[in-house]
Amino acid sequence: MSSTFAPPEALTKVPFHYCPGCTHGIIHRLVGEAIDRLSIRERTIGVASVGCSVLAYNYFNVDMQQAAHGRAPAVATGIKRVLPDRVVFTYQGDGDLASIGLAELVHAAARGERITVIFVNNANYGMTGGQMAPTTLLGQITTTTPSGRAVKEAGYPLRVVEMLATLEGPVYLARVSVHDPANVIRARRAIIKAFEVQLQDLGFALVEVLSICPTNWGKKPVEALSWLKEHMLPVFPLGEFRAVS
Amino acid sequence: MKVLMKGNEALAEAAVRAGCRCFFGYPITPQTELLEYLARRLPEVGGVFLQAESEVAAINMVYGAAGAGARVLTSSSGPGISLKQEGISYLAAAELPCVIVNIMRGGPGLGGIQPSQADYFQATRGGGHGDYRVIVLAPASVQEMADLAVLAFELADAYRNPVMILGDGILGQMMEPLELPPFKEDLPAREWATDGCRGRARRIINSLYLDAEELERHNLRLQEKYRRIAEREVRWEEYLTGDAQVLVVAFGTCARIARATVKAARSEGIRAGLFRPITLWPYPYRQLQAAAASARAVLVVEMNAGQMVEDVRLALEGRVPVHFYGRTGGMVPASGAVLQELRRIGGVGRVQHVRPA
User: Fold this and answer.
1) Which of A218, B155, B249, B332 has the greatest number of C-beta atoms within 10 Å?
2) pTM, to two decimals
3) A41 located within any domain
4) What is the pLDDT along chain B (357 residues), one digit of tens a residue?
5) Do A75 and B61 touch (CB under 8 A)?
6) What is the CATH number for A137?
7) Which chain A residue's Cα is nearest to B200?
8) How many Å apart are CA A213 and CA A220, to the nearest integer?
9) Contact yes or no for B22 and A81 at CB 8 A
10) How many CB pairs under 8 A join A and B?
11) Which residues contact B201 (CB under 8 A, 6 or more apart)?
């Protein structure tokens, strides 16, 4: 019997620890498929971050390093500079990448490091139980903004892709979402491109993936998908912000 | 053939000759020449030089590069070493070999840029979080800045552990003639490096153990390694300790000053000797105890408010009064002042007047 659908070779068989309905699983799968499609599994090194995806090293079937909170782009830089013919990617959440690790991210991007960054934005700190992240929306209730994020105390959400688009170092910058199948297909294409530009030695690439956090948002998965569409898309518009022709 | 070099540059060149092809760092006085030397030198030998955006980034680049299998170096001074502590804890936990240089300046806080030894506690007592050890080597000359750089890379590889070279602003800045080490070609294989899993099972570099029993097992294994290092890798130097009634204990630049003082004291009839630890961790506790066997008083000389003196007291277990003389903030002890202390605590016929420690 021929197989028509199988898990990517670039993912292990270890069951995900993610909460029911969480979209990390979809995004892991898209990264795994991109690695398979480009036949780079045996020369890829992944860098796991701190947060919900801290255990990513259990799931990607490639050599992995686990980095300190926010430091994945610096760790990836160290790997890539030593092994320029390998493929290096980081997988980071919004707390890790956009808060504690912003300096490492911006400078890796400005240097045009030949790395691929997968940035999962679910508008809160998931692992520690739903605190405010730099990407938390105005008015959004989290455990550290119990009355909703207010500008006066907590300022405005950070738009990472738009910010990086002011730099010369990045060659591919995109924001995608996984809240419905059509967008999953687009996200898949963007992630493949973000690896391709690294293979072509062109420069830094980042794909921001809007993701849901049903547990900490206090919503059923389907409600969370609608909430993403309704509330996150106006603040975090989708599209390619930098692309090579 | 001897060459005349600054300590920072001698260390940098020795690192290159030891097979280091990878440096990540950030400018800070008084170590900046090391960074500048390698910015020019590493590209000549096909190596990687990267000026990082911060000390935090630099030490995490070291983590990535070490994990990818490179012999890798970073350097800084006190305030920058404080920033690196998070990364050093991760490097120790993930058992990644690397060499970290601290050319110490006066602290605390921003402190100053003059030489100091005030980072002894930070270097030997951890600095970062968790139960871990870093091998700490203390050079006392430009020659040793080079020799200990070579040793540092060998120890780092042998034990898969970070090694720190703890120098000070004088050692970094002064020029002395030295014999440079030969070039090393064959580096040990790294059967654990994450360099792509072609034809083998994938590898993971990690310091996360969510299961408490597993984390304890990891800690016990690390402790066993530290015990092995402490048994095998203690290094020290003695000068006229055989019959010494008053023993000076000092490391790095202070040991240079103390050596001259011991000589001067001997010419006055004071039976003085010098014990110089070269490894600050593991500390030569037993060796110091043996060297102090005939001593009636011990004087510890440091460029800090009294840090190594605690290890000396641990080694001597109250058997001998231990005195301390130190200058801080970038002030360097003068040999005349140290001699005066020696006369006070150990002068011929005056030993009975020694104050208790």
Assistant:
1) B249
2) 0.96
3) yes
4) 999 999 999 999 999 999 999 999 999 999 999 999 999 999 999 999 999 999 999 999 999 999 999 999 999 999 999 999 999 999 999 999 999 999 999 999 999 999 999 999 999 998 999 999 999 999 999 999 999 999 999 999 999 999 999 999 999 999 999 999 999 988 899 999 999 999 999 999 999 999 999 999 999 999 999 999 999 999 999 999 999 999 999 999 999 999 999 999 999 999 999 999 999 999 999 999 999 999 999 999 999 999 999 999 999 999 999 999 999 999 999 999 999 999 999 754 444 333 444
5) yes
6) 3.40.50.970
7) A42
8) 9
9) yes
10) 125
11) none
